[in-house]
Amino acid sequence: MSTSTLTRPGARAAVPSKGGDRRPRYGIYFIALLLVGVIVAPIAYIIIGGFRSNAEITQDPAGFPTQWRIENYANVLGSPVFWREVGNSTIAAVATTLLVVVLGVMAAYVLARYRFKGRNALFSVFTAGLMFPMTVAITPLYILVRSLGLMNSLAGVVIPQVGFQLSMTIIILVPFLRTIPTELEEAAFMDGCSRLGFFWRMVIPLSMPGVVTVGILAFIASWNSYMLPLFILNSESSYTLPLGVQAFASQYSVDTAKVLAFTSLSMIPALVFFSLFERRIVGGLTGAVKG
Amino acid sequence: MTPTNDSVVQTQVAKAESAQGGGDAVASPSPARGHARRRWALRTEIAFLAGPALLVFLTFVILPVIIAAYYGFFSWSGYGPATDFVGLRNYVVILQDEAFQAALRHNAIIVVLSLVIQGPIALGLALLLNRKMRFQSGLRVLIFAPYVISEVVVGTGWSLILASNGALNGLLDKLGLAGLQQDWLSNPSLAIWTLMAIITWKYIGFAVILFLAGLQGIPEEILEAAAIDGASYWQIQRRITLPLMGPTLRIWAFLSIIGSLQLFDLVYIVWGQYVAETAGTSTMATYMVSSGRNAGSYGYGNAVAVVIFLISLAVALLYQRFVLRRDTEGAVTGGNDN
Amino acid sequence: MNRRTILAGTTALVTGALLLTACSSDPGTDGASGDGAVTLTLWQNSTTGDGMQYWQDMADAFHEQYPNVTVEVQSIQNEDMDGKLQTALNSGDAPDIFMARGGGKLADVVTAGQVMDLTDKLSDATTSAMGAAMSAFTIDGKVYGVPTAVLPEGFFYSQDLFDAAGITSTPTTLSELSDDVTALKANGTDAIAVGAKDAWPAAHWYYNFALRECSQDTMNKAASDRTFDDDCWLRAGEDLQTFAATEPFNNGFLTTSAQQGAGSSAGLVANHQAAMELMGAWDPGVIASLTPDEQALPDLAWFPFPEIDGGDGTPGAMMSGADGYSCYVNAPAECVDFLDFIATKANQEAYAAAFQTIPASSEAQGAVTDPALTKLLEAYKSAPYVMLWLDTMYGQNVGNALNVAVVNMLAGSGTPQDIVDAVNSAALKG
């Protein structure tokens, strides 16, 4: 993947440069600024709070640090527990993403480009997955994971997550794969490609934007997943970050500043990951929202 | 993925954007010789491609729900096997329970307000971000940021900000607006709006990204033609962009409705499981956890889960039937197998 | 009714997986392996420094004495404990040693056959040292757990704030308490901190009013028939409603948590932002962890719940909790050795020091030095009778309904009658 792919030529203004818009630009920047303020304030509060002392937060909840203390952050960054949790979260998120993408693309390809009896029924079964969040099925899920001997392992978190992510993945990918032109397919068959060959050589590369989109959504969902790990992971060595945040918050409940520092650091990786791929998400969804 | 391919897809997308909102672009295998052999080959391919996903999905999503439905017919405290079969009693109690009715009401309010509040704001933001401007990419990241941060973190942060002696009231005090200080979380006439503010802040990014994708799909030629004909910016948005955005808006509304019906984490973390009820922010999912798991009534909790599922399904089916019918074929209702 | 008839017609995969779960009554993991090495997993609810350290120390000391046994300590957030334990027990994947709260909650586990009967297994030394504290873990004459702490309840208050408000003696009646609340509020602090976000701290107010209004027999009878048919239950609700109408609780008490962070009710007392709270004997330890310097609050003192006129309860009766530990039904025999081990005088004294609370062993109670706890211990020893928390005694189902109803009433969306009704209809949700 070269860097040039990160700049999509498709990002175009909805308004041509001539005509239509003669209003000054300041208004827009003002609105944008206001918006940034509203959205960023709570996040900034969490991050800046990590630089304050507890006494300050208790006495004056809405203030700036009188002096910027970095020890809260330094402590968290220097603790092996934090890095172990980052590692666990990363493993779980990457594994979930890969599995969701591979299984999702394969299934979506069938639903988008094959005609067979029961295709719509199959699609309905997958979309039905949107109707129940994990909360609903958590007790039976726990029993299931246990009888498969996956307790306390990241696999016990990853596999159910893949199942629950498949619905959204397939709903986004199917319309996307449908838009791949029939002419291409016919041309490929002329060249003696089988359908599977066409799948490997054309579909996978062409559906990249969609794949990136569902990949990011799966990654973020896994990174932030709380309910399932709470039940599956009991030993601290297998904790993921959200559990770590919780455990940390109760262990240092007195120390709001420390908790804020830990919290800020735990959201950074997902934010960075997202900003790297942000442009591609829009491209990926363009196919999906066509329906 | 190269830029060239991208534009190919783009034009195809534009092509597909026909008056009926996209047709069925399924390639049918050419009716060739050796019917039976081909059919078997096809079946093998289908099984090979869709099998793994279906297996994982059935085992970890559908099966737990079936188990939940099974336990819903029992009075079961969660220890040992369920033996006390009570038939439909759990369901009768749920539907008569005032606390559940209240939760259902709150869910309905959240569904409607989410659409009414988020829709227009997100559309405006998407139009704004779709223009050429500096820091565009940075802005997008910022708007999407709350969606990326986990509910645990968001909940912890907002709890600190909104507490009676938290940052928001502290800020008002500093600005000399002490008169505006409120009990943001536990005042029943305010709490639902506080919740809506948090929901909007957290999920608006998702709507904006979807709408941006929809806007990208609108063929530029149409807009240019309209501009040349002397249409103003607002006329173009109203007459051309909005109608063409129809499918996108309807898909987003669908996802938003389903999400609102199943809202859990944010309420649970910010309000806790008990105060949500009195503050008027309880949802069906928080009711399920507090009257099921926390009361040690697992059978009852599983019955609530089934009710949530049925309500979501009913709403989804109605929505498909009357709103989405023209956009997607066969998502849930199973359209025609042309 | 077996699962197969109900689910006939579902795919083979579904049935197969269900049968897998149907036979989940296989013996649990006993961790025993060929060479006699045994691993015991322990779930406890302390997530802060000294408490966590105590359990780790116990595990290490036990391992020294029994080299073939390793104890794995896992900390579970107190508010998550019951739910996680339940899920773990019903899937046959329980920890070998787990925290038990006694009463009806423990009875639920006993009924399901998930907990080991310790009646003839514990050493005589343990049984005699624990004495009356054993009763919370005794069901139908059989012992299912070993208590580690007794947690009687009353008001923990800040002497400095009381002095500043000109209060010279602690209140003994409800009207005196109301006068003190007025004086404290006039002095500019919150009078009483309540962590109603967690529900149980608010419900404890109702329990104590019920303790004053209802006779011992009435309260015990309710434990077996699980209905509130005596008039005293309604009177207790009315008392609480009348008292709450004077706005004695801290600003925003409905969204205040009990013990998490400086903004919790314990944190408000620790930082002198509220003068008192109604809590069990664990409170000095929690408050100490929340003071700015993380040391015990020097001016912390204690007084019992005030008496009221015309109630059926005996004056001096107390509400109390009991923390203890039980063994999973399929745990290795070494589990009992571990329970005997933590019940020894030295280890109970270490427990009292680590948690700043009252140990269950009467032999170790001499180790209590904290002035507030000493006063509490005297009241406990001279109490005519002690009642277990109602939500523990009446079991999880009734207890949860009761707690929720009390919070509803305090939030202004329920009545005393609603509390009684909630309890009487709780069984329907069984």
Automatic annotation (TrEMBL), chain A:
Residues 86-277 form the ABC transmembrane type-1 domain. This is Carbohydrate ABC transporter permease. PROSITE patterns: ABC_TM1. Pfam families: BPD_transp_1 (PF00528). Belongs to the binding-protein-dependent transport system permease family. Coiled coil: none annotated. It is a multi-pass membrane protein. It comes from Demequina capsici. It is found in: Cell membrane. The keyword Transport applies. GO terms for cellular component: plasma membrane. SUPFAM superfamilies: MetI-like. GO terms for biological process: transmembrane transport. Keywords: Cell membrane, Membrane, Transmembrane, Transmembrane helix, Transport. The chain crosses the membrane at residues 26-48, 91-111, 123-145, 157-177, 198-221, 259-277.
From TrEMBL, chain B:
Residues 104-319 form the ABC transmembrane type-1 domain. It is found in: Cell membrane. Pfam families: BPD_transp_1 (PF00528). One of its GO terms (cellular component) is plasma membrane. CDD domains: TM_PBP2. Residues 1-13 have a biased composition (Polar residues). The chain crosses the membrane at residues 46-71, 108-129, 141-163, 190-213, 249-271, 298-319. Keywords: Cell membrane, Membrane, Transmembrane, Transmembrane helix, Transport. One of its GO terms (biological process) is transmembrane transport. Residues 1-32 are annotated as: Disordered. It is a multi-pass membrane protein. Belongs to the binding-protein-dependent transport system permease family. PANTHER family: ABC TRANSPORTER PERMEASE PROTEIN (PTHR30193), INNER MEMBRANE ABC TRANSPORTER PERMEASE PROTEIN YCJO (PTHR30193:SF37). This is Sugar ABC transporter permease.
From TrEMBL, chain C:
Residues 1-22 form the signal peptide. Keywords: Signal. It comes from the Bacteria. Pfam families: SBP_bac_1. Gene3D superfamilies: Periplasmic binding protein-like II (3.40.190.10). This is Extracellular solute-binding protein. It comes from Demequina capsici. The lineage of its organism: Bacteria, Bacillati, Actinomycetota, Actinomycetes, Micrococcales.
